[in-house]
């Protein structure tokens, strides 16, 4: 944190302006402009060829799958896809960029004018504009540590050269670090649903740079902006922005001015530090890539791609909230990944009461997983197991108490519900006379509740069901018990 803690009054005088640039690696089998494997974790410098090394005479050929994925992402982000976009060379020297330039897009990107809606603190939503989505290729990787002589040498792994990227640039619409966090969370979720990227931040397949400036509230003109790089989690983006906003306000309040520069986030120290003065677009000497023709996304191709769009997370949540009568929070849990939501819905469809499957999953199963600190994919009880349990409960073949006991056994032994139920098949009292006898005893012992019931407070029936269930050690057939309690009290 900045050396001097700023008072809330001083912080409130300024408005932060934040824009985000996100790079995502596209999950194509091969690279953007050659046939080399696009694969993380291969032996260094094994997935390379004259094209991605930029050797003389080698010519790039555009990967159609990369275009499909960039188009799909553009549509999912509500962008307008340009029919004719242009690849451009972005020239700069870096040891892990053997060509001396990156093939990118400049003034005619594949898509523009998109948006993402994010939730705000007051419960409403805010629309964050997306300026553009453009295609480009990744550079290689410089490895500064991990070798015996790392203190004096840097190693290069060029496997990443030519990996297809989509760069997604937001409008400077974001006003708080929380909004930035929400935007990134939504963006990642949408990209994962479209399956164009695995968005694995640890492996670098999703990377984020943040542009941030502050200005006195009410001022139209933007302050000098600082780009924060090297932030490898959304939580760190939020922390880096919080730090950077306070730092800039402190500089201005102290009579100084902010210089346009690139700063790096140091997660260990919890601060940013200056890396270099920020380069301008003209420093890169962009010009149209002479080795590639204009990229044409025809109306037909666009329609074909639109058909491949899955139901997106926000729409899916809205539908599931009404279909399964879920709370927004529960809908979030069930749609946390497309694969999980798919598995849930496929299973729920086969159950007698899909809503009960949702309830069991969210309460009984999720509760036990939380207690053990396990992720959903480590659950011993499968979706089919939950469906079976829900159906048995619906048919009155087990009571909810028995269900809890069976789930306990599943989690203790790491077994699915099916085999546990077959083995332990809980005893059930289905003898009406035996149940009636227990009901009579409970009625005799609770005259006050009987009076209340007969005075019209029919919800008291639940009290009697509960008492008898307890007396039967959870073994009374629930359907029969409910029926008999109503009959006895009514009579
Ligand atoms: Zn190659």
Give an account of the 3D structure.
The structure is a single chain. With 491 residues, this protein is of the alpha+beta class. 41% of the residues lie in helices and 19% in strands. It has 17 helices and 16 strands. The strands form four sheets. Strands 2-6-7-10-1-11-12-13-14 form a nine-stranded mixed sheet. The chain has a three-stranded antiparallel sheet with strand order 5-4-15, with no helix packed on it. Strands 3-16 form a two-stranded antiparallel ribbon. The chain is elongated. The site of zinc ion has 8 residues, from helix 2.
- Taken from the alpha-carbon principal axes, the silhouette is elongated
Number of strands: 16
The hetero molecules present are: zinc ion
User: Whole-number average pLDDT?
Assistant: 90
Strand order of the largest sheet: 2-6-7-10-1-11-12-13-14
Helix content: 40-55%
Defining traits:
491 residues; alpha+beta; nine-stranded mixed sheet; three-stranded antiparallel sheet; 17 helices; 16 strands; elongated; binds zinc ion
């Amino acid at each position: 944190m900045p050396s001097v803690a700023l008072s809330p009054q001083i912080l409130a005088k300024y408005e932060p302006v934040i824009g985000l640039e996100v790079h995502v690696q596209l999950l194509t089998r091969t690279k953007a402009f050659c046939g080399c494997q696009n694969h993380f974790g291969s032996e260094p410098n094994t997935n390379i060829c004259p094209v991605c090394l930029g050797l003389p005479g080698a010519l790039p050929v555009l990967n159609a799958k990369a275009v499909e994925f960039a188009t799909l992402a553009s549509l999912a982000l509500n962008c307008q896809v340009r029919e004719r976009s242009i690849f451009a060379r972005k020239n700069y020297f870096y040891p892990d960029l053997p060509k001396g330039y990156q093939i990118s897009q400049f003034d005619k990107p594949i898509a523009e004018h998109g948006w993402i809606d994010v939730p705000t603190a007051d419960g409403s939503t805010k629309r964050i504009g997306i300026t553009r989505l453009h295609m480009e290729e990744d550079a290689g990787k410089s490895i500064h540590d991990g070798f015996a002589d790392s203190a004096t040498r840097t190693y290069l792994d060029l496997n990443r050269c030519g990996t297809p990227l989509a760069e997604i640039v937001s409008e400077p619409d974001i006003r708080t670090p929380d909004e930035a966090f929400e935007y990134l969370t939504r963006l990642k979720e949408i990209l994962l649903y479209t399956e164009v990227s695995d968005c694995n931040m640890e492996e670098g397949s999703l990377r984020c740079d943040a542009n941030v400036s502050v200005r006195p509230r009410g001022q139209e003109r933007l302050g000098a902006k600082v780009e924060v790089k090297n932030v490898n989690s959304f939580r760190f983006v939020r922390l880096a922005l919080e730090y950077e906003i306070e730092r800039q306000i402190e500089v201005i309040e102290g009579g100084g001015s902010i210089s346009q520069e690139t700063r790096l986030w140091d997660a260990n120290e919890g601060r940013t530090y200056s890396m270099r003065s920020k380069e301008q677009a003209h420093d890169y000497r962009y010009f149209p890539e002479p080795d590639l023709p204009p990229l044409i996304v025809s109306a037909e191709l666009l329609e074909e791609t639109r058909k491949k769009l899955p139901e997106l997370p926000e729409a899916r949540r809205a539908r599931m909230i009404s279909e399964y009568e879920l709370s927004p929070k529960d809908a979030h849990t069930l749609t946390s990944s497309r694969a999980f939501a798919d598995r849930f819905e496929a299973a729920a469809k086969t159950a007698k009461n899909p809503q009960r499957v949702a309830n069991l999953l969210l309460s009984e199963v999720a509760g036990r997983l939380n207690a053990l600190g396990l992720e959903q994919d480590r659950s011993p009880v499968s979706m089919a197991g939950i469906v079976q349990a829900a159906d048995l409960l619906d048919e009155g073949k087990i009571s909810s108490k028995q269900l809890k006991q069976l789930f306990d056994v599943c989690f203790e032994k790491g077994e699915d519900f099916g085999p546990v139920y077959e083995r332990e098949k809980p005893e059930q009292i289905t003898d009406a006379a035996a149940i009636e006898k227990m009901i009579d005893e409970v009625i005799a012992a609770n005259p006050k509740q009987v009076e209340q019931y007969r005075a019209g407070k029919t919800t008291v029936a639940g009290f009697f069901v509960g008492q008898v269930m307890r007396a039967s050690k959870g073994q009374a057939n629930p359907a029969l018990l409910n029926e008999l309690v109503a009959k006895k009290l009514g009579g």
